[in-house]
Q: What sequence folds into this?
């Protein structure tokens, strides 16, 4: 038993895999192309035209031979110092680093210069080295995952997160997107403009609020949108409105990742907004009248058929989120992703305990996922208490109020704040109840602006200020359901008392 524990401790102290040893165990050599490595290094010594492409595409890890890695690192260092690469400069650099004898002395460099392949084939050689590098990194990642899987003390969720992170890093670090000619990009842009001529003019996913869509032209594909506010201001209610509008009104599939509350609570919030019934009744604390059940049945038909997909996994690891998004986009055709909220996600396991770096890694992954899958991602975020400590009009949220990491502001294409005038006593004016400003504080591809809206807490929904004014006019007698001979719901008001409909609870 003691011997077994000793062996286990040794394995933990040496977690990295030796590819040569593993190759012997597998009965095969690790993926490599030493002759190609020599040809590339020889080309760099002799052909200056090869240098830029090689330095842009290759890293020291692309070379399997340790000697070749040392030589390439010396070459890269010289290139960064804007010193021409040749036999003499490279040998002097290796000598200065103390690596000249380790690579085989000047004789080795002379031999490399004699093994040069055709310079015209350098692009092909580079592709071979990158392929071999990816294979080796996948082997290393897989072996580390395999070893960790045998450790019964490790948390399975952490294991899955680590496995996804390692595999993603192995691929992402070695895959680069080719440049595009401006002519092709312009043609694609013209096609997009032509497509928009036949639509509503929105180039992205509609928010359902004309005043917002006028500024944003919809939520744009590949954008990371950060929606931030203090707790209980209405962040979740607002994004639920956005998700509902996109799915119900425009039939665009939406994925909603709720890390804060279960799916059934989200559904009840949407039911309140859709039916305009009391929150207490939807939550189940107050009995519903017969006409209210009828209202539920009729009003929820559209919502029930809407392409909205809810994932309420708590503490969702960011790499698991990425995998789920890829699946939803490919299988369900999802056009909009909502995350509620960013700070509740788990970053890479190796960054746990370093909160700022963890949040930075989360925001980078969200942006990378939005770009890779070509869908907008709206991520909710908490604000710090700084805004509450300021006085008067200075309580308006600012970009500096974003909590825990400056990388959130940096990675976001758009930052939106929700500012409520009646929140925490900012205004005592009865006219300010529900008065809200949607502050577009950062807009990478457009203008910044303030949009006036109203939050109806009893209905768990936001409305444009213009729509709110129209509804006020209706309630003053310009148009009224009381004058309708056939009211849509409920009994005839003249035939008996209308069942009470309490809207006192705003805990939504």
A:
């Amino acid at each position: 038993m003691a011997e077994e524990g000793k062996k286990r401790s040794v394995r933990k102290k040496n977690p990295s895999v030796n590819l040569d040893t593993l190759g012997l165990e597998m009965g095969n050599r690790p993926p490599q192309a030493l002759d190609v490595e020599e040809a590339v290094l020889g080309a760099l010594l002799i052909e200056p035209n090869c240098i830029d492409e090689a330095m842009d595409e290759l890293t020291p890890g692309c070379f399997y031979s340790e000697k070749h890695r040392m030589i390439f690192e010396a070459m890269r260092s010289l290139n960064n110092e804007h010193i021409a690469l040749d036999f003499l400069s490279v040998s002097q650099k290796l000598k200065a680093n103390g690596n000249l004898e380790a690579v085989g002395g000047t004789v080795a460099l002379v031999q490399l210069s004699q093994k040069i392949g055709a310079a015209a084939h350098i692009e092909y050689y580079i592709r071979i080295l990158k392929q071999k590098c990816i294979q080796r990194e996948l082997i290393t990642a897989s072996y580390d995952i395999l070893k960790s899987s045998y450790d019964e003390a490790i948390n399975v969720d952490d294991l899955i997160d680590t496995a996804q992170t390692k595999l993603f890093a192995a691929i992402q670090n070695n895959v680069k997107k080719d440049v595009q000619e401006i002519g092709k990009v312009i043609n694609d842009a013209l096609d997009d403009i032509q497509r928009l001529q036949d639509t509503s003019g929105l180039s992205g996913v509609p928010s359902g609020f004309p005043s917002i869509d006028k500024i944003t032209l919809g939520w744009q594909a590949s954008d990371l949108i950060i929606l931030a506010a203090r707790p209980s201001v209405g962040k979740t209610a607002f994004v639920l409105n956005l998700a509902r509008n996109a799915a119900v009104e425009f039939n665009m599939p939406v994925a909603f990742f709720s890390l804060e509350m279960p799916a059934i609570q989200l559904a009840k919030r949407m039911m309140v907004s859709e039916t305009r019934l009391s929150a207490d009744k939807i939550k189940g604390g107050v009995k519903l009248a017969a006409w209210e059940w009828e209202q539920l049945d009729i009003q929820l038909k559209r919502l029930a058929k809407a392409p909205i997909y809810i994932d309420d996994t708590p503490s969702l690891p960011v790499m698991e989120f990425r995998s789920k998004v890829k699946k939803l986009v490919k299988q369900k055709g999802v056009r909009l992703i909502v995350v509620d909220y960013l700070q509740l996600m788990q970053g890479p396991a190796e960054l746990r305990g370093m909160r700022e770096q963890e949040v930075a890694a989360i925001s980078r992954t969200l942006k990378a996922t939005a770009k890779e899958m070509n869908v907008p991602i709206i991520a909710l975020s908490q604000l710090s208490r700084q805004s509450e400590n300021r006085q008067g009009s200075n309580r308006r949220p600012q970009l500096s109020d974003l909590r825990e990491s400056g990388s959130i502001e940096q990675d976001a294409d758009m930052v939106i704040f929700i500012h409520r005038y009646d929140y925490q006593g900012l205004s005592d004016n009865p006219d300010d109840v529900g008065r809200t400003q949607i502050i577009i504080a950062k807009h990478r591809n457009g203008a910044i602006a303030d949009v006036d809206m109203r939050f109806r807490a009893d209905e768990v929904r936001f409305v444009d200020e213009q729509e709110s004014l129209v509804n006020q006019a209706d309630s003053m007698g310009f148009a009224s359901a009381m004058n309708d001979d056939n009211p849509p719901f409920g009994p005839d008001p003249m035939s008996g008392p209308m069942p009470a409909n309490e809207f006192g609870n705003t805990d939504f």
